[in-house]
Amino acid sequence: MTTAMKTTWSRWMDEARAFTLPSLTMAAGASLALALSLTACENVAGYTQPSLVRVIDASYIAPAVNVTVEGTLIAANIGQGTITSYGTLPASNDAVIDVTAATGGATLVSSNGTLLGGHQHSVFLTDNGAAPTSYEVTVLEDQQVAAASGHSAFRFLNQAPNTGAVDVYMIPSGTTMANSIPLVTALPVGGTAGYISFTSQTVTMVITPTGLTTPKYTSTPLALTGGEVRTVLIVDTQFTSNPPVEVFMANDVN
User: Fold this and answer.
1) Three-class secondary structure of residue 45 per DSSP
2) Is 0.85 surpassed by the pTM of this model?
3) CA end-to-end span of the chain, whole Å?
4) CATH classification of 48-142, choosing from 1.10.287.40, 2.60.40.2890, 2.40.40.20, 3.40.50.1820?
5) Which of 21-25, 74-78, 234-238 holds the top average pLDDT?
6) Which of 108, 174, 191, 247 is exposed most, by the fewest CB atoms within 10 A?
7) Residue 220: DSSP 8-state
8) 3-state secondary structure of 43
9) If we measure between CA atoms, which residue out of 153, 87, 80 comes closest to residue 115?
10) What is the pLDDT of residue 46?
11) Residue 215: is its pLDDT beyond 90?
């Protein structure tokens, strides 16, 4: 072997020794970590959060009903005043919503709605007044985060056609209606007000026809401590005139 060949051989061996087992292991580990990180990024990018969905039944004329969304039964044998718990469904830009009588038969009303991933929604069943047995389904987006510290947030749905437009008071303990101003004024039939934030304390909810001071509904004291988010459904009482307005309230958060 010539001197030049010996020099080349020596350089090659020095370079080869640099690739020891530890260094090869580290290189392999780095490659694996890179591959896993790329895979994780792909999984996150392709992940869609589910949507939380419930049903609010405000129909006076519908029989007991079943409600399905994209073929999944989310409410069974419910009637007016029912506000179901939330269920989990895949997000969809065009979810098919079907309402049928609990006893079976043809679909009473079918609609489509957007269900956003990571959001809360209410499927809202009402009467549209176009015919004696005509219904309407809308999808409401519900607040999904707690109200600010020391505050409560309430949304109001007026579905009381006999009562008409209403004012809603949240009267603090120890205060009279005469010394209070309405939280909501002139909420029309079919109207939605909310979410309205106010300071948390013990309050009494009082509902009157707009501009009048005679209560149509007076709640028991509501002890609000902060963070509460509520939906309040207002309907005409069907079976008694005292009180003439009935209220159904659901916890959206807390």
Assistant:
1) helix
2) no
3) 85
4) 2.60.40.2890
5) 74-78
6) 174
7) P
8) helix
9) 87
10) 55
11) yes
Contact 138, 124 (CB under 8 A): yes
What integer pLDDT is reported at residue 129 of this predicted model? Answer: 75
CATH of 145-254, one of 2.60.15.10, 3.40.50.10490, 2.60.40.1110, 1.10.760.10: 2.60.40.1110
Residues 1-20 have pLDDT tens digits of 544 444 444 454 444 444 44
Strand partners, 198: 152
Which residue type, as a one-letter code, is found at position 189? V
Identify the band that residue 47 occupies on the pLDDT scale cut at 50, 70 and 90: low
Closest CA to 152 of 86, 53, 223: 223
Q: What is the pLDDT of residues 128-160, one digit of tens each?
A: 876 667 999 999 999 999 999 999 999 999 999
Tokens of 11: 């350089």
Tell me the one-letter amino acid at 10.
S
Q: Which residue has the tokens 């010539």?
A: 2
Buried b (16+ CB within 10 A) or exposed e, 234-251: bbbbeeeeeebbbbbebe
> Please, what sign has the CA dihedral across residues 27, 29, 30, 35?
positive
